[in-house]
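Worked example 3 (structure in, sequence out).
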């Protein structure tokens, strides 16, 4: 079955060939297709849930009656976004450390369960404070954003650039698919009269229906993850997984499929290289930095069983030392800035579209005038907004399937990132002038779709490049920590941005200078371009440290080979 699937993908790949010997994507025979698909199925419920809120959050806050004026709605919507990001900021780093200690899979399953509960609470919220609590709980329990990147990186291998590009493109593709589906769910199923036949529910809880569906999808993701997703932690993947064992037994007994050999079914293979840690507790393993010394080698085992454990203790590289490496540091800075302005755009564009059209009460003409007197929005409904956002998600799917592989085949990730981010200052500058088209709904929707489409193209292609750069350079034994730190830092951006810009947009709207908020995003786009000059895809660690680690590893490998040979252990040492 898998070979047939590979042949089909191979045919598709050949159709995109540049020459007879060059293809745009890696060899699928060595690509972990099955696990990437499973991770995608587990992950897809998150973007569906996240984007389902955007079409109706303006109307939800409006119905809660907490905002005194229409301009204040943006501020309270910003609070809902900020509290989610703030709780993520508090916990994501710790979820990353938790995943390094207990495994990627348990962390994912806890996150999915927490999300399902929090979305149900949001759907049945009767006032703003319950909605606020639901968003806080969601961010507190969901550390999956950090873990998904780690899962993909460890499945495809950090040294296989073509596999990495395709692996991280799958994350973006899943997000775009989820965005399309989530926007449709939120736009078409929210409100009291959105769906006939369920008035007994929607009359009392107008936003329960989309959230019940979201929680059900999260429950399905939980089941798929439990029974089919494999652990990828370099040590814990050898731990027996009873859920996968159960699924394998069902395959064999009911479907008559060939039994699979799992990592815990066979003797552990020992693989040591200059990039991989030499076993032992994850907290005592390190990569090169400053001083590399081997303090102790210990080989112990049971003579009768032939089992063996090997412990190599090396001076630990601190979390701060890892994060402060220029190659990683500027990647994190770039991701922070990117997250900041994309979050603001995604949060406040639907609100801008939902604002009433500002008209002169005497003449009925538009109040807004080019270039600096800008007020009001386009008076779109939740269905209009959901339709626009879902169309953008569909466009994003096309981008990831066709444009992303082409770009990654011909250009380095760093080049792609630096090129794509140049579009942000331009598109943000033009957003406030959409109000000048308010009298022409068809034209205004086309212009809005153009803005969202350009933003989608830029984000879909540029965002994965930062992940690829950071994942390639992050030490294997601290990758969960690095991802957790990144999500915590970007969560800080998502915490502060909606609060600060919520006030800014409310102030600008009240004073007929709505362009101020959007032009400030253009400024951040320029800052991102400036910091992009310092980004690098090379690890600039001291060469003496690298040489010391290489020599140290070679000595360790030779000693371990001799030990294995003497005790006739069943294992393979890769040097």
């Amino acid at each position: 079955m898998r070979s047939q699937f590979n042949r089909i993908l191979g045919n598709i790949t050949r159709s995109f060939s540049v020459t007879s010997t060059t293809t745009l994507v890696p060899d699928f025979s060595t690509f972990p297709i099955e696990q990437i698909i499973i991770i995608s199925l587990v992950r897809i419920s998150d973007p569906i849930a996240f984007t389902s809120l955007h079409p109706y959050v303006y109307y939800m806050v409006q119905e809660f009656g907490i905002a005194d004026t229409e301009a204040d709605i943006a501020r309270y919507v910003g609070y809902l976004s900020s509290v989610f990001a703030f709780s993520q900021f508090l916990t994501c780093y710790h979820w990353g450390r938790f995943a390094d200690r207990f495994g990627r899979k348990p962390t994912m399953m806890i996150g999915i369960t927490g999300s399902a509960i929090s979305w149900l609470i949001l759907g049945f919220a009767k006032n703003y404070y319950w909605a606020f609590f639901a968003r806080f709980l969601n961010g507190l329990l969901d550390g999956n954003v950090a873990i998904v990147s780690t899962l993909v990186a460890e499945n495809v291998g950090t040294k296989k650039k073509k596999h990495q590009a395709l692996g991280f493109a799958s994350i973006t593709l899943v997000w775009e698919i989820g965005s399309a589906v989530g926007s449709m769910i939120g736009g078409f199923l929210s409100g009291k009269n959105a769906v006939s036949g369920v008035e007994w529910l929607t009359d009392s809880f107008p936003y329960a229906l989309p959230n019940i569906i979201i929680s059900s999808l999260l429950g399905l993701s939980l089941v798929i993850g439990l029974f089919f997703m494999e652990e990828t932690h370099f040590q814990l993947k050898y731990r027996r997984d009873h859920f996968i064992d159960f699924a394998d037994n069902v395959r064999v007994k009911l479907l008559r499929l060939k039994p699979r050999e799992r990592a815990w079914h066979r003797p552990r293979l020992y693989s040591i290289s200059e990039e991989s840690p030499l076993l032992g507790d994850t907290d005592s393993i390190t990569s090169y930095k400053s001083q590399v010394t081997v303090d102790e080698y210990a080989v112990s085992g049971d003579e009768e069983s032939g089992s063996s454990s090997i412990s190599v203790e090396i001076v630990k590289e601190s979390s701060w030392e890892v994060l402060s490496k220029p190659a990683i540091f500027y990647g994190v800075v770039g991701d922070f800035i990117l997250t900041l302005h994309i979050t603001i755009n995604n949060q406040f564009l639907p609100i801008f579209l939902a604002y009433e059209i500002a008209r002169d009460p005497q003449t009925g003409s538009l109040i807004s005038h080019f270039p600096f007197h800008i007020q009001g929005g386009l008076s779109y409904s939740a269905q209009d907004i959901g339709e626009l956002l879902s169309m953008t998600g569909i466009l994003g799917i096309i981008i990831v399937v066709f444009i992303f592989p082409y770009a990654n085949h011909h250009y380095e990730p760093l080049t792609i990132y630096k090129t794509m981010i140049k579009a942000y200052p331009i598109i943000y500058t033009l957003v406030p002038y959409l109000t000048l088209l308010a009298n022409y709904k068809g034209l205004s929707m086309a212009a809005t779709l153009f803005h969202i489409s350009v933003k989608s193209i830029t984000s879909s292609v540029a965002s994965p490049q930062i992940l690829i750069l950071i994942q390639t350079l992050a030490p294997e034994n601290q990758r969960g920590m690095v991802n957790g730190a990144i999500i915590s830092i970007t969560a800080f951006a998502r915490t502060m941005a909606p609060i600060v810009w919520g006030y800014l947009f409310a102030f600008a709207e009240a004073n007929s200078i709505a362009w101020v908020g959007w032009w400030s995003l253009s400024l951040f786009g320029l800052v991102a371009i400036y910091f992009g000059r310092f980004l690098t895809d090379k690890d600039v660690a001291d060469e003496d440290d690298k040489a010391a680690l290489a020599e140290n590893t070679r000595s360790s490998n030779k000693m371990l080979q001799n030990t294995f040979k003497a005790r006739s252990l069943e294992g393979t040492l890769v040097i």
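Notes: The longest helix spans residues 70-102. Residues 8-25, 269-315, 540-546, 559-575 have pLDDT under 50 and may be disordered.
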